[in-house]
Design goal:
By secondary structure, this protein is of the alpha/beta class. The protein folds into two domains: about 250 residues, TIM Barrel (Alpha-Beta Barrel); about 90 residues, Immunoglobulin-like. It has eleven helices and 15 strands. The longest helix has 20 residues. The structure holds alpha-D-glucopyranose.
């Protein structure tokens, strides 16, 4: 049996933040998880979320002065002893933390990405079939990649050699270029700011990622941090054209963690006043300001009907790392299919180089993903999950009355077998089954044990329409 969740029904689920009850009737036994997290009432937000869910594939970029050292973004400044915090690059020069911190801050004085041209970034992203972008306007280190009035620690400061260049306000350039090419625009913004004296007060040592004082004990200082954050977000919501997504990182900044109440209701109201329908992602929180969930570097086990997005690095690190270990196109296509079959979006991260170029390996991966998308994109864009979502190496998606079965070859280069078999979903009687990229319909049958068998024409086996994963389309 084919089960359908129509976009309209899904919208209703979303709008009402509905219970398991309704989805149970819609989906039968194999329910996607609904945790009521995305209870959105604003109809413009609901509309935008629906549109965003159709896009499926986005580009994430972590870029900052830290890119010059090839280190993990920001984290080496933090007092937490975590394995990914790697300070070893300049360790001989900066054996103690104070010197290291100074040198890190001085990276602004040498950041000069003369090759930066967002037209060169958007081109491979278009080819890959990406439809939205999220850019780090400010990471935890506090270095602003936009022309803020709130601090001089920014790419447009006279201290930064790049400030004299016409594209110095890089956030603006990136947003304009990607928007002009039809992308939805997302601003990554770190709520914690490890450069602000109102967050990391130099009076006290800094133990960890949190504010290093108790906001309740020093309300005036905390209020200054709230104002600073509010003003920066307002700058981004007013001076940078239409913004679709405000992607707030640093989940520790919330009322329940060390009293770090940043005034999300006020921020959201202001932001949506300037940007009606804005999607807000207050990561790691539940409630009205987390319009979709953001599992990081992982894919949920099962389908989820509320909006969600896996963010994941193409290499091992969010920020640029020389000789990083990039995932193969084969892996990336499979990740995309797995995510989309479970109802999510894939936000794939690339760390641009300090000179402003995208790493060549990343560009070639995007091109190869694009080759796959140009044949199979219709099984990805605008689809919604359909039970059983996945069965072994077959993933399912659906769009209106069409269901797609996506068979993922296990080993790269294996190619198509003579037939594929699955048991948990049957095409409706009289359906035609097509292999995308191949004209002729495939023969299919339900065998005695109730399994669906799709027979693949020899010609298609010999010269398949694509690599990595093959899509069978059931048309009634
Ligand atoms: C992790 C990293 C952070 C990065 C984020 C992106 O939380 O610690 O640096 O920006 O992932 O999702």
């Amino acid at each position: 049996m084919i089960n359908f969740i129509t976009p309209v029904r899904q919208k209703i689920i979303l709008a009402l933040g509905l219970s398991m009850l309704l989805t149970t009737t819609l989906l039968g036994a194999d329910n996607p998880k609904v945790d009521g997290n995305s209870t959105v009432e604003d109809s413009l937000v609901i509309e935008k979320l629906e549109k965003w869910q159709d896009l499926k594939f986005g580009l994430f970029m972590h870029w900052g002065a830290y890119s010059q050292w090839g280190i993990v973004e920001s984290w080496s400044l933090c007092g937490e002893d975590r394995e990914f915090i790697n300070r070893n690059r300049p360790v001989d020069k900066y054996p103690d933390y104070d010197q290291y911190k100074k040198a890190y801050r001085n990276l602004q004085k040498t950041f000069n990405p003369l090759q930066f041209d967002p037209a060169k970034w958007v081109e491979p992203a278009i080819k890959a079939g990406m439809k939205y972008v999220i850019f780090t306007t400010k990471h935890h280190d506090g270095f602003c990649m936009f022309d803020t009035k709130e601090t001089d620690y920014k790419i447009t400061s006279t201290l930064c050699p790049y400030h004299i260049q016409p594209k110095a306000n890089v956030t603006k350039e990136i947003f304009n270029t990607f928007r002009d090419n039809g992308f939805m625009i997302g601003a990554y913004f770190s709520k914690p700011d490890w450069d602000s004296e109102y967050y990391w007060w130099p009076y006290f040592p800094t133990r960890d990622r949190n504010a290093n004082y108790d906001p309740l004990k020093y309300p005036e200082r905390w209020q200054k941090f709230r104002d600073f954050t509010f003003n920066q977000i307002e700058e981004l919501m007013t001076g940078y054209g239409d913004v679709d997504i405000l992607w707030l990182d640093g989940g520790q900044v919330n009322p329940s963690q060390n009293n770090q109440d940043i005034n999300m209701p006020g921020i959201a109201q202001m932001a949506r006043q300037h940007q009606p329908g804005l999607i807000i992602v207050d990561r790691g929180q539940k409630g009205p300001y987390t319009n979709y969930e953001t599992p990081e570097q992982r894919i949920p086990e099962t389908a989820i009907v509320t909006p969600w997005e896996t963010c994941m690095t193409m290499g091992d690190q969010w920020s640029y790392k020389p000789f990083d270990n990039y995932k193969s196109t084969h892996q990336l296509v499979h990740l995309l299919v797995d995510i989309v079959a479970k109802g999510g979006n894939f936000l794939l991260n690339i760390g641009p180089q300090p000179d402003g170029e995208l790493p060549a390996v990343a560009v070639s991966r995007l091109e190869e993903i694009g080759e796959w998308m140009s044949v199979n994109g219709e099984a990805i864009y605008g689809t919604r999950p359909v039970a059983p979502y996945k069965e072994g190496s077959v993933a399912f998606t659906q769009k209106e009355n069409t269901v797609y079965a996506i068979w993922m070859e296990e080993n790269e280069g294996e190619g198509l077998p003579g037939k594929i078999v699955f048991s948990k979903l049957q095409p409706q009687k009289d359906s035609k089954v097509y292999l995308l990229g191949y004209k002729q319909a495939c023969k299919w049958e339900i065998d005695d044990s109730g399994k669906t068998n799709i027979f693949i024409p020899l010609k298609a086996v010999k010269s398949p329409p694509c690599k990595h994963a093959y899509v069978f389309k059931f048309v009634l």
